[in-house]
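Forwarding the complex inputs:
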Amino acid sequence: MLIGSVEKLIIEVIAVFILIVFFDYIFGWLERKTIAKAQLRHGPTYLGKFGILQNLADILKLLTKENVIPKNADKLIFSTAPLLLLALFIFLVYLLPFPNGLGIDISIGLLAVFVLLSFSPLLIFLTGAASGNKFSLISAQRSVIMSLAYEIPLILSAAAVALYAGSFNIANIVYSQAKIPFIALMPIGFFVFFIAMLAELERPPFDLREADSELIAGWLVDVGAPYYAMALFVDYTRMFLGSLLISLLFLGGWLGPYLPGLIWLLIKVFVVAVVIVIIRATTVRMRLDRLMRFGWFWLLPLAVLNIIFTFMLFVK
Amino acid sequence: MLTRINVGPIHPSTHGVLRLVVTLDGDTIVDVEPHIGFLHRGVEKLAENRMYMQNEGYMEKIDYVAPMAYSDLYVAALEEAMGIHPSERAKYVRLILLEFQRIASHLLWLGTFCNDLGLMFTMFTWTLKDRDLILNLLQDVTGSRMFYVNMRLGGVSIDLPPNFEEHANKLLDYLEKRFKEYEAFLEKNPVFIERTKGVGVLKREDAIALGVTGPVLRASGVNFDVRKDYAYYAYEKLHFIPQIQTKGDSFARYKVRMQEMKESIKLIRNALKLMPEGDALGMPIKLISPPVKESEVIVRRELPRGEGMIFMVTDKQRPYRLSLRTPAFINLSALKQIAKGASYADLFSILGSLDLVMADVDR
Amino acid sequence: MKINKEELIEKLRELSSKGYNYLVKITAVDYIDHLEVIYFIRNMQNKKEENVRLDLKNGESLPTVLEIYKAADYYERELSEMFGIAIEGREVKRLLLEKWDGLEAPLRKSFQWGSEYKSG
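Prediction (whole assembly, three chains):
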């Protein structure tokens, strides 16, 4: 887990990148199939066995299209903000520790992740505002407002985990779950973290920015085709990041009998992601004011209670 | 600061071509101005230049969700003008087919309503599957899934096939089960309840003053249903009960339609039991129609969307004036008053609950 | 019942105070030398219906009944653009037809098919 020589570093970088791409791709396929089954349809079946090559075809098609920039858009910000967003999320995945020699070991890992994560609403807002379109602006505003309400419970429940484990180093947090994973120790914290993470990932039922019947595609309305492909990538990378955080902080990371650590980690990430997709297929989207009320009046007190309990019960 | 937003003629949700210019103050709606007429085909003028039996096809295209109801309305007007009475069995057959049509129309409405609220097509595909089963049944009877043109003077074009009763009963059992599931899913869902309860309240006096009709009127507490008050076919014998709610919000309109679907199932079951033997066939379509006896005809029917009325001034071979009163037209005009003061996200909940079909509005 | 144009507003007010407060439709028939305008109103308590008819000569205008029945808004707009009747007392905007200024009102018998493609 420590940074070795330069070749080892390069191998690690490439390995994690392949992992991200693999997860995004499989996950995109899984989501389409699961939602289709929930809606009594089949989903992609034509390309590849079980339609597994469908996403590849879609991305290739999008990448070969012309990039159109609207006249009222601010060219520089509009072209670079989505790229920065993707770079941000990929970088965040690198900050998390992976077992079996991949990944970096940072003593302030958790703090770094959350500090950098809070840049994402800013970049989303920049993309939406720079496209010169009233609807994108409204949707970008909604994203920022939502992140205001939900980042605090998110950070508080992660802080409870760090409080118990006594360190910001995510690898140490995982090792301190060797006897019992944190989901059993602090179920309230898990619940708050999961829901706040859903809001942070902008997944249904919190998918305000993509309120199809109201604002069409939100801040993505005016981005050109290659950027849309990138935005899909951003979505799934974000989900990978969120599921990784949940598995590392609450489900025991890569600890488990018999199988190598990496496989356990991926299994847990996969299970979390499947749950997120099933939530997407079955819920109704909430209204913005209800979302805000839920965040401020329910999640925040629960997160604070969680910290108080953790402190009183476990930290002597 | 007032902003104007254009909810354009092309929507992601399936409303049809309706353009709304919404004036917002922050998040509150100050004014909604519908611009309609994208689907205006001049049916009333066309009808004046066609012979009587040629018009039935035009009447069906007015509502593409429940076409049989309009063709029944028109053929009933013709029957009254020519003094032809449908036989007893024909009345029951028409009633059964019309009630199936009503269930199919409300199922489509339920799917698109949930779509508007953000359920992202899951409910839409499920209700469309149920509607598909009904359309298959109607295809067995009439030969086509949409635009049946099966109403004839004095009856229907083809009588019910011999095993219709058991197929229909099986389908009705299945539909009853499904309605229970839908109710259990939607009415215990806190997000659905929050987006529909208390949203778009229309009080009783306003409902009567604005002239709204159908489930919108009944959801505001007005006890008026053409099937009860100006009863036609066999509704009196089948003990029909109009479904009323009193709150007048989107949830009440949803509930009225849900109850109406269940009531239709009851009506079909009773009608299948009480249906007499006999001949339900009507006269075949001929260009030269029977001689016309009345000079002015007024007919009312309860269409799935509300009360439809035809006022026809007759000539020897073609209508001199065919004046159609369609329910969605007047329901849309109430949108301005209902939506005033609501928040922008509620606009789609209100619009969905009014059950508009744009071809109905524009004719 | 058949009345004159001048009695329209008071007759409708009288009927509406007797309980006929639901306007079903306002429609018109073109009998080439005059128009007949019909108001269908209904009593929601005893479910009786009444139709009030009046004759309009060509070119005459119709008083608005918006204060008595709020439902008359869309019906009057449609009537005015389809038959070319002017509505006195308020400003009516077009409802169903686009770019129809200067052309013949479509539902009148003198409307020639295809005339909407000339000029306008």
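Chain B is about 50% helix and 15% strand.
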